[in-house]
Amino acid sequence: MASYIAASPFLGLPRELRYEIYEYLCGTEPRSYPFKAPPIASFDQTPPPTNLQLTCRYIYEEIRTYFHGRVTLRFVTRSFSQETRNHIHSLALTAIRQAKKVELVLVWDIPLGLVETEWGKWPWAMNGWLDEQVSLLLDEGKNLESVVVSIRDVSENVDWEKKTMILKPLSKLKARVRFQSGEITAADREEEALRGHLGKYLRDLNKRRY
Fold first, then answer.
1. What is the pLDDT of residues 79-122, one digit of tens each?
2. How far apart are CA 98 and CA 70, in angstroms?
3. pTM of the complete model
4. To 10 degrees, the CA torsion angle through 120, 79, 156, 122?
5. Strand, helix or coil at 122?
6. For residues 67 and 26, is the Cβ–Cβ distance under 8 A?
């Protein structure tokens, strides 16, 4: 690193001060679809300017580590295709490996006729997507500390017990992360109940960490 410092007075600053500069330069607006392929649908903020990142390799790596360590990566349920890890962009994998916080946005649409159907015949968006993301985070998210669970539920009159089947994969992460409730959207008369059920479910997972 000594040669970099000689060439860049910026690197002569204390790291804490450089981090404050990076924080100041990070945008506050979300950045949607930072990569062409899933699973990351958005960052909750934008990274420092590209021209700063291109100053030198060391600064680029430092900014990337700093940014991915503070940004929230958002994964949103995809219903129209099943993605595989072979299609994940290498930079997306780097982000997942360095991230400390991920938000999983579950999109539920459970027709009443589906409730009594065998679980294996449910749409992949509900019986497979979350399990795939949890497996990815277990394998790659070595720095992960927090998982936010958000739900967009357009189902009506479906018992909570049926919905918990969709959430079961989260238990694989219970020894690794702390869970938080995120944004809950549902039919007016069901939203408050869903928020309460999810909150209790996640609190129980957090208790089982110890």
1. 666 666 778 888 899 999 999 999 999 999 888 788 888 878 88
2. 9
3. 0.86
4. -10
5. coil
6. yes
Angle, CA 106 vertex, CA 110 and CA 37 arms, to 5°: 120
Do 86 and 67 meet the contact criterion of CB atoms below 8 Å apart?
Answer: no
Q: Where are the beta strands (DSSP E) in 59-207?
A: 72-76, 101-108, 146-153, 178-185
Cα 74 to Cα 148: distance, rounded to the nearest angstrom: 9
Asked if 85 and 51 touch (Cβ cutoff 8 Å), the reply is no
CA 210/CA 205 separation, integer angstroms: 10
β-pairing, 146-153 vs 101-108, is: parallel
Asked whether 125 and 155 are in contact (CB, 8 A), the reply is no
pLDDT tens, position by position, 23-56: 888 888 888 888 878 899 999 988 878 888 878 8
